Amino acid sequence: MKVIVTGGAGFIGSHIVDNLIAKDYQVVVIDNLVTGKKENLNPAAKFYQEDIRKKEAVAKIFAAEKPDLVCHQAAHASVIKSTEDPQYDAEVNILGSLNVLQACLQTKIKKVVFASTGGALYGDTDERPTPETHTTKPISPYGVAKLSIEQYLHYFHQIHKLPYVVLRYANVYGPRQDPHGEAGVVAIFSQKMIADEQPVINGDGKQTRDYVYVKDVVEANAKALESDLDNTTFNIGTGQETSVNELFVELAKAAGKQVEEKHGPAKPGEQKTSALDCQKIKQQLNWQPTVDLAEGLRETINWFQENK
Question: Helix %, strand %, coil % for the chain, to 5?
Answer without folding.
Answer: 45, 20, 40
